[in-house]
Design a protein that fits this description.
The protein is an all-alpha fold. The chain is globular, with a radius of gyration of 21 Å. It starts with a helix and ends with a helix. The chain contains nine helices and no strands. The mean pLDDT is about 80.
């Protein structure tokens, strides 16, 4: 719970939410303090179980009882076919994560060799609409290189040689540097706006 609230959400999700809020009008707070406090009051026996949440949703509208979540969780028991579908969806969700942010170094090297087969088509797009690892390696590669090359004019602590190496390794498929490239983009935009005002 603490990891999710104080690291995963603010470090990895808030920036995307703030970009989306630039185009859409949010109708609820990003993370309500009362909701976060309530999460800490959850009994230990219920931690990690989706059942209480699914029951709360079903009490709100009984028709929602049979609607599966993005992970195929449902309040009612599933038969063997339903269990098979659920396991398949869990597998594709994990595979999609591995093909995006979470691809470990060993798989990155294998993916580079198998790149002509475009295996990502088997996984990407089933659970999420954004796939930055492959975008930075493909359709956005030139923009990312341009950003990395723009850094020599910026003052320390930026190290343009490291940034160019990170971008080169990622765009060539030798490594997965999706999160550092996110930081590169955020830093470049922030620095250019702050420095242009001084």
């Amino acid at each position: 719970m603490t990891f999710i609230l104080f690291k995963q959400v603010p470090w990895h999700h808030y920036s995307r939410r703030s970009l989306e809020a630039g185009l859409l009008q949010p109708i609820s707070p990003f993370l309500d303090n009362d909701l976060a406090a309530l999460a800490y009051r959850c009994p230990a026996s219920l931690e990690g179980s989706p059942q209480p949440l699914l029951e709360l949703i079903a009490r709100g509208d009984e028709r929602l009882r049979r609607v599966p979540t993005d992970r195929s969780l449902q309040l009612h028991r599933l038969g063997w076919v339903g269990q098979g579908v659920r396991r398949y969806r869990e597998l594709t969700a994990k595979a999609e994560y591995a093909y995006d942010y979470g691809m470990p170094p060993a798989l990155t090297r294998i993916d580079r060799v198998l790149r002509p087969l475009q295996l990502e088509r088997l996984f990407l797009g089933r659970h999420k609409f954004y796939h930055f690892r492959t975008w930075y390696r493909g359709v956005l590669a030139e923009q990312i290189r341009s950003m990395a090359n723009a850094f020599p004019s910026l003052p320390p602590p930026f190290r343009p040689d490291i940034l160019r190496t990170v971008v080169d390794e990622h765009t060539s498929g030798r490594a997965n540097h999706t999160l550092p490239i996110h930081r590169l983009i955020a830093s470049q935009i922030t620095a250019s706006r702050l420095l242009s005002q001084s």
